[in-house]
């Protein structure tokens, strides 16, 4: 099986490459290496590499034409909600136009397409199943929802073979420190406070990244490729403050919480159910493994802590 991994140098993409390696596959990684895509994430992995932009139609199509993948999995995205509030146009570029380029390739070349979306497309305050309507709140989730709708349209209009996968909030090794859990771990290791938006009661459904990639691989085995949706909730819904409490216990450190003004449009609660059945790593165990990874891999994050999204309490401002 020939796998092509778009965005394979990012957080979830690189975990997927590792998982494929453990099964004996050597995928082709296609990545632009934006701020969150790092060659360090693929250290020790077995892969071929093309540096390229999904927005660049010609490079994407010639790579696919030469490599002839059986499956293309698209993790390439602008992925951070705060950045989308600051700079929405970048999100339309990669998360919508980039997706259309991949879909155009799917029309011309014969491969199965796994489109990685997010629980955020459903919006907040209700428990979504795979048939629930989309109601995105942020420029990020709006761009992801638009990408999903184009996948559906290409399946219906052109008959391409695709599935849409919607994981909930992932955490684990190699997540860029702008995201809440690595930010909390690293700032606490540095003796800094942890900024918490609003009242800290916003609830997320947490899933360990190694569970997500295993479940995506299982979906590939059973997919019908008719544009169907697969939700991947972690089934572990905790508020930001609850996560910090468990993380503090895991780290054996006091978390210095500082409440800051709420993110504009902040979703209060994500909740999904899935037609799939699977086991996941308990949150405390996943947080322990995540903390141990950041503790023993300071070299990975020390050069990143100048990033304004790591340093500032309200980075969208
Ligand atoms: N992290 C989460 O909690 C989470 C939850 C649900 C869904 N998702 C989705 O999973 C996917 C991966 O998320 P992640 O957390 O690994 O993100 P990430 O930011 O860590 O990685 C994104 C990767 O895409 C690459 N990329 C960005 N723009 C590109 C472009 N134009 N061309 C080629 N490559 C490009 C980056 O270099 C990086 O390697 C995204 O689609 C995201 O929306 C993430």
UniProtKB/TrEMBL annotation:
InterPro entries: NAD(P)-bd_dom, NAD(P)-bd_dom_sf. This is dTDP-glucose 4,6-dehydratase. Signal peptide: none annotated. Gene3D superfamilies: NAD(P)-binding Rossmann-like Domain, UDP-galactose 4-epimerase, domain 1. Residues 4-258 form the NAD(P)-binding domain. It comes from the Archaea. SUPFAM superfamilies: NAD(P)-binding Rossmann-fold domains.
